[in-house]
Amino acid sequence: MRWMNLEKIFINGGTPLRGEVFVGGAKNAVLALLAGTILTKSTCRLENIPNISDVSIMLHILHQLGAEVRRVDKYAVEINTKYFDSGEVPYELTRHCRASCYLLGALLGRFGHARVAMPGGCDLGIRPIDLHIRGFEMLGATVTFEKNAIISMQSEQILGGPTHVEYSVGATINVMLAAVRASGVTVIENAAKEPHVVDLANFLNSCGADVRGAGTDVIKIHGVKELHGCEYAAIPDQIEAGTFMAAAAATRGHVLVRNVIPKHLESISAKLLECGATVEEFDDAVLVCAPTRLQRCNIKTMPHPGFPTDMQPQFGALLAMAQGTSILSESVFDNRFRYMEQLLRMGAQVKVDGKVAVIEGVEQLSGAQVKAYDLRAGAAMVIAGLAAQGVTEVESIAYIDRGYEDIVGKLRGLGADVARRDVKEYDVGEDARLAG
Ligand code: EPZ
Predict the structure, then answer these.
(1) CA-to-CA distance for 391 and 416, rounded, in angstroms?
(2) d(CA 271, CA 411)
(3) Which residue of 259, 260, 266, 337 is 20 to 30 Å from 118, comparing CA positions?
(4) pLDDT tens digit sequence for 182-196
């Protein structure tokens, strides 16, 4: 047993958020773009790169594998992978970032072989990569599973061909990375249509690739021999934007969310309107206002352009205080309601049955000590704390830092009474906790 230092976010809730907030570059686009830089020996300059830990980890992995990584300014990096090591990518590098699985497609596309340790799991349920593997095999790769969870792929030549990825974002991205330098034409059927899939296609085409149809169900890729470098700015983060929109509505605030692409936010805006908030769209901003108590609504998460699963926890928090009964159906992941047990600690009335949660809205949540189980669940705890009466302490905030740059600073800029603080807590030790 010992004392440990824990960093927590403290929120004194009940203040409507007011003002404007700027959204950063899209985490899930940037992670794919970083893998894409492996496909060229020339320098790529990437702009609108958010300062979040998932990006730092991916930059570290590239650097450890031989890439030259030069920070140009706070939001721009230059990367050159000319002397990239095509050897094994060990678990100690891949364990912290699921997007490291994109190294499979990028290494296969560049070198014709890859040996990458499976990334770690997370709290959303089992996250296999069978669709990725099937895509690589359709392109002519021989895939073997070695000890230490190493996936080894070998191919004399990557041959373009037909693949089905069942709307998996990761599989769509990974097959694109493997196919852009294949010989022949690759057709990806049932492709994911998320904005970050389109962003990767645009980046690859800026490097001289020939990717058509991104954003539709069918992506056609004519393989090219070489890719050159490029300068490319990542799209704004659809989920960071949606998170601030939900926070504005949950606190009955008035917030201009800037540096967004409104079209990427349509499903989120539609649900906020259904809940009684107003959403006014501008070229690169949305204004969210919610003066009264929100109304209930039902949500079913779907692949883009449906309601994004990465916004489900944030709306779970928002609907916990809405008038009436809401039903949340999570159709993408197996286990994305663990955060509900933390909302119960704040007085929410929710019941979860498998992939469906029924939320009886309450007038008021009360501040409590809660924890973040994953990145978006952490954001949900912050939203609940902002709207609750009293003080909420959120722990395990490293999850939040994976996808939100300076969330405390941005919320303080909107008038929230929020701070990060180190606290000393008595750690009874894992065994005792488990025994409890
Ligand atoms: C990406 O994960 C995102 N991560 C996730 O965002 C996001 O929730 C998810 O897409 C859905 O939009 C990154 O982009 C780094 P999937 P990914 O492949 O690629 C199953 C966040 O908070 N599946 O579309 O793993 C899978 O288990 C994170 O930013 C297979 O069965 O998502 C899941 O149930 C969380 N076999 C469903 O498909 C496979 O080979 C969707 O997964 C691949 C996926």
Answers:
(1) 12
(2) 22
(3) 337
(4) 999 999 999 999 999
**For residue 170, which phi and psi values (nearest 5 degrees)?**
-65, -40
Task: Phi first, then psi: give them for residue 27, nearest 5 degrees.
Answer: -50, -50
What stretches in the chain show pLDDT beneath 70?
Answer: 1, 121-123, 428-436
309 Cβ inside 6 Å of ligand 1: yes
49-95: pLDDT as tens digits:
999 999 999 999 999 999 999 999 999 999 999 999 888 999 999 98
The string of pLDDT tens digits covering residues 120-134 is: 756 677 778 999 999
The confidence score (pLDDT) of residue 415 equals 98
**One-letter amino acid for residue 420 of the chain:** R
Strand partners for 7: 422
d(CA 219, CA 188): 5
| Residue 403 in contact with ligand 1 by CB distance below 6 A | yes
Catalytic residues: 122
pLDDT of residue 1: 67
Determine if ligand 1 sits within 6 Å of the CB of residue 355: no
CB 240 within 8 A of CB 404: yes
| Nearest protein CA to atom 34 of ligand 1, as residue | 333
User: Can you tell me whether residue 388 is helix, strand or coil?
Assistant: coil
The answer to whether the peptide bond before residue 308 is cis (omega within 30 degrees of 0) is no
What pLDDT is recorded for position 436? 43
Report the C-alpha gap between 249 and 242 in whole angstroms: 11
- Dig out the tokens for 423 from the structure: 């606290």
Q: What domains does the chain contain, in order, with CATH numbers?
A: 3-23+236-430 (3.65.10.10), 27-233 (3.65.10.10)
DSSP per-residue codes, 227-263: ---EEEEPPB-HHHHHHHHHHHHHTT-EEEEES--GG
Single-letter residue type at 214: A
DSSP helix/strand/coil, 29: helix
**Neighbouring C-beta atoms of residue 132, cutoff 10 Å:** 24
| Atom nearest to 31 CA in ligand 1 | 15
In angstroms, the CA 431 to CA 436 distance is 9
Question: How far does residue 169's CA lie from ligand 1's centre (Å)?
Answer: 6
Q: Assess contact for 258 and 20: CB atoms under 8 A.
A: yes
The pick from 52, 169, 310 for probing ligand 1's pocket by mutation, whose C-beta has the most ligand atoms within 8 angstroms, reads 169
Q: How far is CA 113 from the centre of its chain?
A: 27
Q: Is 304 in the pocket of ligand 1 (CB under 6 A)?
A: no
Please work out whether the CB of residue 121 comes within 6 Å of at least one atom of ligand 1. Answer: no
